[in-house]
Amino acid sequence: xxxxxxxxxxxxxxxxxxxxxxxxxxxxxxxxxxxxxxxxxxxxxxxxxxxxxxxxxxxxxxxxxxxxxxxxxxxxxxxxxxxxxxxxxxxxxxxxxxxxxxxxxxxxxxxxxxxxxxxxxxxxxxxxxxxxxxxxxxxxxxxxxxxxxxxxxxxxxxxxxxxxxxxxxxxxxxxxxxxxxxxxxxxxxxxxxxxxxxxxxxxxxxxxxxxxxxxxxxxxxxxxxxxxxxxxxxxxxxxxxxxxxxxxxxxxxxxxxxxxxxxxxxxxxxxxxxxxxxxxxxxxxxxxxxxxxxxxxxxxxx
Length: 302
What we know:
By secondary structure, this protein is an alpha/beta fold. It is 43% helix and 16% strand. An eight-stranded mixed beta sheet has the order 3-2-1-4-8-6-9-7, sandwiched between helices. A two-stranded antiparallel ribbon has the order 5-10.
């Protein structure tokens, strides 16, 4: 597919030097990197310990090359991920009409940018498609094409357009009131996961996130999200211990998608098999979480 114009890449970073290096080095190896404009949003430090780490990261990003143009935006204080992404995405997508978004713990396939730009072009005027994901769960979806559509938004390497993003609203109270009981069930992938709780926890101040609002905004506007059958992105951020380590293992795929030419679907409706497979994935993940919890309790008692 001949791409008319490339979307700007926006990378959000904080204080993880090694993760940032891996993310950037993989991105530089993308076939369209040298023709792409890169915006890097560097969040400010929270404390003295963060200040040293942030300084190291900022020193590194000033040495980056391999892109058509690089613009660095250094926050003078700590904005937090949710506010930084909301502000940065809004600024860049409104200026360029489309956008590709990454965070500092995502390693991409060398065909990630090609897939994202081709998807943005192919579905630009198919207004029911709101979101392009570069990542996919480690599940097998049988379709004649290399992509499928479903309701769920994944934010590990994603893209969208300004006319869709303008509906993004970070307002827990209003969104919660808008959801009917049956919509909550559907939003939670037919009860297999509790995504709706994230809206409630944001309202209570337990967490402060952005992605759940984008998912809710897409869902309430009856939008769909495009996914590749095989992931173009690996998340290297879940490399801690305990639950995070388990989560990283469950969500990780064995290898990156290195397919150059992607076949897109013209059928703009949710793939029913993908939802079935996703429900199976979450049910399996739930059982493993329960087992992990039981083991940790018995370990503590001993």
